[in-house]
Design a protein that fits this description.
The protein folds into 2 domains: 221 residues, Aldolase class I (TIM Barrel); 81 residues, no CATH class. The strands form 2 sheets. It has an 8-stranded parallel sheet. A 3-stranded antiparallel sheet has the order 7-11-10, with helices on one face. The chain is built from 13 helices and 11 strands. It has 320 residues and is α/β, with parallel strands linked by helices. It binds flavin mononucleotide. The site of flavin mononucleotide (FMN) has 28 residues, from strand 3 and strand 9.
């Protein structure tokens, strides 16, 4: 099945399914697998050194010649400034920023034909991204895994579509073809999916983390500042519950993140360092709809078949 929207031409991809740039999880294997399957792979490189970013981008290139992007956090501007030339020179076709508009590097990216997108939790953020010259925005609802805002996907996506003229991707607990069809119905040109891709063979996440995603219900996540200092949706565990008893002890970003890293609770990609009772496990409310760990190729085929089915059913309803 093919599923094409205008953003497919803009990004030179076959289907408008974007892998979210998940720090520690979306490394070369996962990124390349999504691009190879016709979607858009994104490396989640927040916190990685510029040499590590270069190495990871080269690993992607060894696996695929299809387009891919790199995601960093605009809230860590030193890393963005240090890494942006590598991201451009090593052949990314897009730079995606979480937690803010990466104003100082947009023109540099455009000069080398690298697209820029921003993950937004409010309509106002999307407007700011468009004004700054970004090529697209991700409207990420509060249901999403990782750092997140307070507006639900169902409210945010159509309002963002109405507010900007650049393409909008929908994000936040989209885990199957129903979610993709809903995103398209809201006027989004595609989806930016995180948590669903953690439960794949190629994702670099600890087994305990993947198992939690399979076993958890949609009610098993909490938005907490206890890991980074900014609100982040994670799988609830005793460590989170303890901090949430008195959140006034939590320090601002990025100090809390530095403290959490020192306490050894931020490493969710390595089996040896992941303790499901304490470790940060960013995940969206969509976990309740994820039941298996599959190879990316199989997941992508399934997502497209489900979307086709839903769109067909809706089309029949409309013509009945
Ligand atoms: C494990 C994990 C790590 C994430 N890390 C980042 C990150 O480094 N940068 C970023 O822009 N977004 C990050 N996000 C948010 C994603 O980009 C995306 O917006 C979110 O996963 C979408 O919601 P979903 O997980 O419900 O699909 C992360 C999300 C998860 C689940």
């Amino acid at each position: 099945m093919t599923l094409r929207t205008p953003i497919c031409d803009l990004f030179d991809i076959e289907v408008p399914i974007f892998l979210a740039g998940m720090g520690q999880v979306a490394f070369a294997d996962l990124c390349a697998a999504v691009s190879e399957a016709g979607g858009f792979g994104t490396l989640g490189m927040a916190g990685s050194s510029k040499d590590a970013i270069r190495d990871e981008m080269r690993r992607v290139r060894q696996k695929t010649d299809k387009p891919f992007g790199v995601d960093l956090l605009a809230a860590l501007p030193e890393q963005v400034l240090e890494a942006i030339d590598i991201i451009i020179d090593e052949g990314a076709s897009a730079f995606i920023a979480g937690l803010g508009v990466p104003g100082p590097v947009i023109e540099r990216c455009h000069r080398k034909n690298v697209k820029v997108m921003v993950v937004c939790g409010k309509v106002e953020h999307a407007r700011r991204a468009e004004e700054a010259g970004c090529d697209g925005v991700v409207a990420q609802g509060t249901e999403a895994g990782g750092h997140t805002g307070r507006i639900a996907t169902m409210a945010l996506v159509p309002q963002t579509v109405d507010a900007v003229t650049i393409p909008v991707l929908a994000a936040g607990s989209i885990v199957d073809g129903r979610g993709i069809a809903a995103a398209l119905a809201f006027g989004a040109q595609g989806v930016w999916m995180g948590t669903r891709f953690i439960a794949t063979d190629e994702a670099r996440a600890a087994h305990a983390f993947k198992d939690k995603i399979i076993a958890s219900d949609g009610a098993d996540t909490t938005i907490t500042r206890c890991y980074s200092g900014k609100p982040m949706r994670v799988v609830t565990n005793p460590f989170v519950e303890e901090w949430e008893r008195d959140p006034s002890r939590i320090k601002p970003f990025p100090q809390q993140l530095v403290d959490s890293a020192s306490a050894g609770v931020m490493a969710y990609a390595h089996d040896a360092h992941t303790d499901a009772e304490r470790t940060c496990m960013p995940a969206g409310q969509g976990i309740g709809g994820i039941a298996d760990i599959v190879p990316v190729r199989e997941l992508m085929a399934r997502l497209l078949a489900e979307t086709d089915q839903v769109l067909g059913r809706l089309g029949r309803l409309a013509s009945a």
